[in-house]
Structure formats: C-alpha cells, structure tokens
C-alpha cells in the first residue's frame, strides 16, 4: 500500500525555480534519508502504511498456505495468486486516468475501504469454514479490480504530502515500508499459522486497513490537491511521456529490466535447491539477504534530492553487476553476499526511476504516468517469469542470472548514450 496527490508547482517549471532560487537553504535543511517525516501529512500516512503493508504480505502468505492445504497442488496455488494480477495487467493504465480525474484522497478512502471489506469477507469465510479455492480466487480478482485505481492513486498521492525536494526521501521511505513488510508480514504469518491457523492472519489484515483509512481521514495535503483537468485518456499520456526524456527513459529502462531481471521468485528456489544443493533454509537465507538489501537500497536513495540520468545508469549497472556476482557465486555464503549487493542496487534503481517520474510528470498526467510505471514494473512479471522459466529449463539459473545482468547493462547503456532535445516547456528537461 504505497503513496500520495499532486504537489503545488508543476514539476517542470516549478521544480526548476525551487532548485535554483532556494538552493542554499534547501541544501542545509533537506539532508537525510528521513527528512520527509518532518511533514505531518506524510508521517500520518507513513504510519498507516507500516501497519497495512505488513498485513497485506501476511495475508498473501496465509493464502498460499491455505490453498496448499486445500488442494495439495502448486499449480492451483500459482493460479490463485495469478488471477489477482489480471485486472491490472489488462486495464491498469485506465486506472491512472481515473486517478487523474478524481481527488486522490477521496479516491483512496474509497479503494482502501473496499479493500478492507474484501479482507473482512475472506476473514468471515475462513472463520465459517467456507474459504474455498473458488471463493479465494473471486476475492483476489475483486481486489485486483480495486487495485486498478488504487495503485496509481497511492503512488501519485505521495507528492501532495511533501515538498518537491523531499519527494525522493518520501518515495524511498515508502520503499522501505514495502520491502520491510515483505520480511515482517511472512514472519508474523508463520508465527500465527503455527499457533492459531490461517484465519487470524486474515483478521489481522482486515483490521490493518483501519490504520490507513484513519490516516487518510486526518491527512491534509500540503498542496491543495487541485490539478488541471486531465487531458483525454491513456493515449494522450503515452504521447506526453514520449516527448519527455525524463519520463520515457526510466519507463523504457524499467520495462527492459523488469522483464528479464526482476524474476527472483522463479530464480531463487531453483538456485537454492538445484545449483547450491540446499533446502528450505538455504532458500530462506537467500530471500532474506535480498530483502535486507532492498531495504538498504530504498533508504540510500532517500539521501538524493533530485535523481539524475547518471544515477539511473549507475544503479542499473550495479544491479547487473550484482546479478553477475550471484551467477558466479560458488557456494551459499557467496551467493547470499552477492544477493545482498543485488538487493541494494535493484531497489536503488527502482526508487530512482519512480522518483524521476513523479518529479517530472505534470499533475494533469501524473496518475496515468504512474499507472504506466506500475504496468512496466509489475505487469512485465508474468511474461518475464515465463521467459525466465524457459531460460532456467534450458541453461539453469546461472544462465538466467546472466541474461538479467545483460538486460541491466543494456538499460545502463541506453541511459548514458541516448539524448533527446529539451522540451520547450520544461525547465528541468535533462536528467544529466
């Protein structure tokens, strides 16, 4: 559950003025990864996210365990988890159009309330003994429909809660919440499943939504939240992005890297079992090291006020180097260390791309640009997982890691070599 609305000045002309006329004061006052927490609206939202994100990953873990108990089939589990992503994959960019036409705070109150209701329904079905696989799939699809508008709204809303100079910090802290929740949620789920079963996990998640809903009730964005009337549709947003290097470059890089490098759910189990000849403990160690690195990477980006094109190139190259080191690792210890480095670089890259898009997208287009970002980041995962599966079957996980490393290096080369003329109405046109 990430993010927040459109901030005061348009991030093209307005950001340039802020970065130049107030630079001495800004540099002195805006240091530190946690500087976004000085904003009371962001603090409220951040606190709600900490509780809700952990609940979300807790429920995902519990659903996996429950479906395996009901079906004893990994294929059924994969189907249950996949159906929830279909609505966003098909209609995600149009959710951004909804976000661009509505007050983001009001929209989030609606989507988070619906999400809480769906979580409560799953809790009630599980408590009554009626949480069948078809029922779980139906709830996952419904949640996917809600996320069509919820995801871009959450991503776009963060820019209304902090000054532009603190946006990198805010996005990095959101990344810390999400990546930390990937560790905390499953750990808490494991403890609850062992002691009380899966039903309490669904109860905890349903209640956790209250933290975000209460936060949204009390949040008052630092900007008015009023944005120019949205220009027509998704095609207009694609045309808008195509004409601006600071938008199409991170989208292109993320599409390439997301397709071939962000497939750890496919790679790590095979790497742990077949290549490193380990068991569940080995897989858990590798996943944990990657997660720790992702938290560190998200925190590191918070030190940067404005992302630049060389930063994107460096992060992509470092991500590729981490994957290459993992492919070369001869044993469990070296693979774990390489994955720690990989996690740092990977989520530096992700957070830099996201920050760049939100800083430079006009408020009238921000929801749709973020929706396109979600599509290229998350939407490429199913296709990438299939491609990675084929590569693993043909050449093993090390081959797939090398392919991912190559995609990162190609993305870095694009960032370093591709230049476009500055757009006439943008003061911060180049990321250099």
Task: Please supply descriptive tags for the structure shown above.
0% strand; 77% helix; 432 residues; Growth Hormone, Chain: A; disordered N terminus; globular; single chain; mainly alpha; disordered C terminus; 18 helices
Walkthrough of the structure:
Its main location: membrane. It comes from Actinoplanes cyaneus. The protein has 432 residues and is mainly alpha-helical. The protein has a single domain, classed as MFS general substrate transporter like domains (Growth Hormone, Chain: A, Up-down Bundle). 77% of the residues lie in helices and 0% in strands. Helix 6 packs antiparallel against helix 9. The protein is globular. It starts with 12 loop residues before the first helix and ends in a 15-residue tail after the last helix.
Instruction: Please give the alpha-carbon distance between the first and last residues.
Output: 31 Å
Radius of gyration over C-alpha positions, nearest whole angstrom = 21 Å
Number of domains: 1
Relative helix content: over 70%
Question: Helix and strand succession?
Answer: HHHHHHHHHHHHHHHHHH
CATH class: Mainly Alpha
Question: Would you give the CATH topology?
Answer: Growth Hormone, Chain: A
Judging from the principal axes of the Cα atoms, what is the shape? globular
- Average pLDDT, rounded to a whole number, is 81
Question: Any guess at the CATH architecture?
Answer: Up-down Bundle
Percent strand equals under 5%
- Total beta strands: 0
CATH superfamily: MFS general substrate transporter like domains
Q: Which spans of ≥5 residues are poorly predicted at pLDDT below 50?
A: 1-30, 421-430
GO cellular component, one term: plasma membrane
Keywords: Cell membrane, Membrane, Transmembrane, Transmembrane helix, Transport
Main location: membrane
Region (Disordered): 1-23
């Amino acid at each position: 559950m990430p993010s927040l609305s459109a901030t005061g000045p348009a991030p093209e002309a307005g950001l340039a003025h802020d970065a130049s006329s107030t630079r001495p004061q800004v540099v002195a006052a805006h240091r530190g990864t946690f500087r976004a927490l000085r904003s009371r609206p962001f603090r409220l939202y951040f606190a709600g996210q900490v509780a809700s994100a952990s609940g979300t990953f807790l429920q995902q873990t519990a659903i996996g365990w429950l479906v395996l108990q009901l079906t004893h089939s990994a294929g059924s589990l994969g189907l249950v988890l996949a159906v929830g992503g279909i609505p966003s994959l098909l209609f995600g960019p149009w959710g951004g159009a909804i976000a661009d036409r509505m007050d983001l705070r009001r929209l989030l109150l609606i989507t988070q309330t619906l999400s809480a209701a769906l979580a409560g329904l799953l809790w009630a079905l599980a408590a009554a003994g009626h949480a069948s696989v078809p029922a779980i799939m139906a709830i996952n699809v419904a949640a996917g429909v809600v996320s069509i508008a919820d995801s871009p709204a959450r991503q776009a809303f963060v820019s209304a809660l902090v000054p532009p100079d603190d946006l990198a910090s805010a996005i990095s802290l959101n990344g810390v919440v999400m990546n930390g929740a990937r560790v905390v949620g499953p750990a808490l789920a494991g403890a609850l499943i062992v002691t009380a079963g899966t039903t309490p996990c669904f109860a905890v998640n349903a209640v956790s939504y209250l933290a975000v809903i209460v936060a949204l009730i009390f949040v008052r964005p630092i900007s008015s939240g009023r944005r120019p009337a949205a220009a027509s549709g998704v095609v207009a947003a694609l045309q808008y992005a195509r004409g601006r290097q600071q938008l199409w470059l991170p989208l292109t890089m993320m599409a390439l890297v997301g397709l071939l490098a962000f497939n750890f759910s496919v790679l790590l189990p095979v790497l742990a079992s077949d290549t490193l000849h380990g068991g569940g403990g080995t897989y858990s160690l590798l996943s944990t090291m990657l997660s720790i690195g992702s938290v560190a990477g998200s925190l590191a980006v918070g030190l940067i006020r404005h992302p630049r094109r060389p930063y994107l190139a460096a992060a992509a190259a470092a991500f590729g180097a981490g994957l290459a080191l993992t492919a070369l690792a001869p044993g469990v210890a070296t693979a774990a260390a390489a994955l720690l480095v990989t996690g740092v670089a990977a989520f530096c890259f992700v957070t830099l791309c996201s920050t760049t898009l939100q800083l430079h997208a006009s408020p009238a287009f921000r929801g749709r640009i973020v929706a396109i970002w979600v599509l290229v980041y998350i939407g490429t995962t199913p296709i990438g997982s299939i491609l990675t599966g084929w590569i693993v079957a043909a050449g093993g996980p090390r081959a797939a890691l090398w392919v991912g490393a190559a995609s990162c290096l190609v993305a870095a080369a694009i960032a370093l070599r591709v230049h476009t003329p500055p757009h006439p109405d943008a003061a911060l046109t180049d990321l250099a």
